[in-house]
Specification:
Oligomer: homodimer
Low-confidence stretches of chain A: 1-6
Helix content of chain A: 55-70%
Distance between the termini of chain A: 78 Å
Mean pLDDT of chain A: 89
Largest sheet of chain A: 3 strands, mixed
């Protein structure tokens, strides 16, 4: 029995690379490297490749068994995949793609060079080619784009015994049943989806029962146009392994399996984490510097604009700062407290929107509660910072103004943290991407302006 | 066929609440509210409850059918669950818990009041009680703590026909097979796990074949002590539905199913998203103000300490600012650019560590690449901001110093963004929680100090 892996991919990758670098021309070393890689599944190899810098990545890629290369390409992030595709011969790519499922091939269709696509499609059977065309009609991130076409389909008017005989015949014909087959899809005579028949029922119930009285009718077919993240939610909430995908008239088009939904959830989670830093989930952490730099540079530019707006605000109060340098010392504290408080609310609300837990129906109440939290927390810190400023600079009025500005900016950050993501999502803008930038602009501007204006009025 | 839901839970929640508020004493209204909730699965009800403020949450909770309440409690976040437990009678809780799986009961063991636990355990059959004791031996976030005890176990020396007869018998005895049964667990005569027998094989292969020649031996048993996130990785990488859990000697203890692993992945993703804002994944977005405020307040305090350190640094250069107020105007730009650049790297590296893609073996190379990106991006923006400062304040030396400080702090942020999470994780501190705070402290201090010191030396 092979041992369960899930080891550190960067260590295994490093050990294989070391081997190749020391004795790269040596057949025995190459065999040893292949032996170390052999127990890994395709997605584990993809993780390993992603943990290597580009040149080393290629030397491992070239060692891989052709049978696994197609799956490895699919499991890699977009940038890493792009590199591997660019550096492989069309023949190697065509051989890799001949072995992958049609639904995966559809996902890669636009990334593969035209000669590879032509070679793969030319070698396909007519049925597989039609399946590919059906899939290509739907966006990649919809139920239709994610479905497999390998559902086992049975009619409702037969008995379980007939179903089992059919499965045995199918097994002999195809040498196996499709992966992750927990249920068979039942259709009526027009090919419309009627219900799901679980293998557990086929195997454990009286063989003379009919499919019609055994199948579950309460598992609805998923419309092919449903967005992937909604499908993933249904899978998670209902603990599904597979589900039927149907067209507008209820005809069975294919099936979706839980492994693809796990990938969708992972992508969603990555997006929520990475978008606020201006990064995307297909990023290659070892991309060459000149490929990584442009996108990061643009993101810094967006934030620079923000920072200059704040600087302009400060500049308006130059006279006050000239008179009292303590204002320059304390003003970043005001901006930062508003930013931190606002970011907490922003994170919670953006996540609530993504989970469909926050929306128009409860936005007002949520805002009220957030303002309450901000007042309690803000009042406490206003007293503390006011006292610190008083002790540090010996000015009561400075302490009062500093405390008041902190309170104001904590409340401002919290209100903005609630309203900015709700507003962006109503405008159709992704709050995970743009929310943080907007929030920082607001808390910086309000933080600097409120503190300096109050100081100008009451202190200087 | 029920329609696929995944609707907005806050809207459905609001509609039920409206109904109860308008005609709460009316039996027909309560029936109507129950009817609207009936199609929801337990985890959907939990999502809905989380989207409601506490008082309204309770009125919906009281409407729920007893059969679903146990599952709803399990699917709720810890804080929401705490509220529901506090507000329910011991009898209602005991009735709810009598219906949930033993592994879930083990998870809630420490959250339920003692009288409820006693009542539930008192009413248990001896077998269920022993199963609960086995589970309680393992931490909640290990394979042993997550396993079910409902695996169907067969011996390897029987034929598939015997297995199918056994499944039919079991079905008649228990009225059904356990949920998510895709494979049967095969054990030897000592109860040691020997392999997995898929239902698809039982149903589609020749009945006279033996289990021994049919079972898959390449799916290893998962050690009961393996941490949950490693188990989830194996499920994701190997597209598993269920897997056997074994003790040190290879004895079969139970099985883990993919639905629990999906929850683990979700929790991990939530943690990665929420921890950097000082929030935790069990947070109730509608928690009462006085419960939410303390934790948020502490987080603001940690950041306040940071901000005061930065303020102290600025204060050291008060004389320079007094002479040239432009320094006060521009210094937040330097701090913020370092912070944004650093946060990008921090996010990527923290995620890479969590995915086991970044570690000692490739840290140095990653650092080199990140410094490269920082130099390209930093040089570009140094030129831009230098020119802006020159145009704004008409001082070449100020422009040069401002540009140099920006470049320095972008490189500083990037280096810190790489080394801080690697260092924290080597010290056993969660980089998702503490990384951002430390990084901000570094980019603020270095940003302010480098700009003001350079200005003091070359400009003022």
């Amino acid at each position: 029995m092979s041992s369960a892996p899930s080891q550190d991919f960067h260590s295994l990758g490093a050990s294989v690379i070391e081997l190749l670098q020391q004795r790269g021309d040596d057949e025995a070393a190459i065999d040893e490297a292949r032996r170390r890689l052999a127990p890994l599944h395709a997605s584990e190899v993809a993780d390993l490749l992603e943990s290597l810098p580009p040149a080393q990545r290629l030397s491992v890629w070239r060692l891989l068994d052709a049978a696994i290369t197609g799956e490895v390409l699919l499991e890699s992030s977009e940038e890493v995949r792009g590199q591997l595709i660019r550096e492989s011969t069309p023949e190697r790519l065509a051989a890799a793609m001949a072995l992958v499922d049609v639904d995966k091939l559809a996902d890669l269709y636009d990334e593969l060079p035209a000669p590879v696509i032509d070679a793969v499609i030319g070698a396909m059977q007519a049925q597989r080619r039609r399946a590919l065309e059906t899939l290509r009609r739907f966006p990649e991130d919809s139920a239709g784009g994610l479905m497999d076409q390998d559902a086992i389909v049975v009619r409702s008017d037969v008995t379980l015994e007939v179903v089992q005989r059919y499965l045995r015949w199918l097994r002999r014909q195809q040498g196996g049943l499709p992966e992750l087959t927990d249920t068979l899809m039942v259709v009526d005579t027009q090919g419309r989806y009627a219900g799901a028949l679980s293998l557990a029922d086929v195997v454990s119930l009286e063989p003379r029962r009919s499919v019609a009285t055994t199948m579950r009718r309460d598992i609805a077919g998923i419309p092919a146009t449903m967005p992937a993240h909604k499908v993933a939610r249904i899978f998670r909430d209902r603990d599904l392994i597979s589900a039927a995908v149907v067209d507008d008239d209820g005809h069975l088009l294919g099936r979706i399996t839980v492994d693809d939904m796990v990938d969708v959830m992972q992508d969603e989670a990555d997006h929520a984490l990475l978008a606020p830093a201006g990064l995307d989930e297909e990023h290659d952490i070892f991309a060459p510097v000149l490929r990584s730099a442009p996108r990061r540079t643009i993101w810094l530019g967006v934030n620079l604009l923000n920072a200059f707006i704040a600087a302009w605000v400060i500049g308006r109060f130059g006279a006050a700062i000239e008179q009292m340098v303590a204002l320059a010392v304390l003003m970043p504290v005001v901006a930062s407290m508003g930013g931190v408080a606002g970011n907490q609310t922003l994170t919670l609300v953006t996540r609530g929107i993504a989970l469909d837990q926050v929306g128009r129906a409860n936005a007002r109440r949520l805002l009220g509660k957030e303002i309450g939290v901000a007042l309690v927390s803000g009042l406490f810190w206003a007293l503390v910072v006011g006292a610190v400023a008083l002790a540090w600079f010996g000015s009561t009025s400075l302490g009062l103004v500093f405390g008041a500005a902190i309170l104001l900016n904590i409340v401002n950050g919290t209100v903005a943290g609630t309203l900015v993501p709700l507003g962006l999502s109503r405008l159709g803008v992704d709050p995970a991407l743009a929310g943080g930038v907007l929030l920082t602009a607001l808390t910086d501007v309000v933080g600097f302006a409120s503190f300096l204006a109050l100081a100008m009025a009451f202190v200087v």
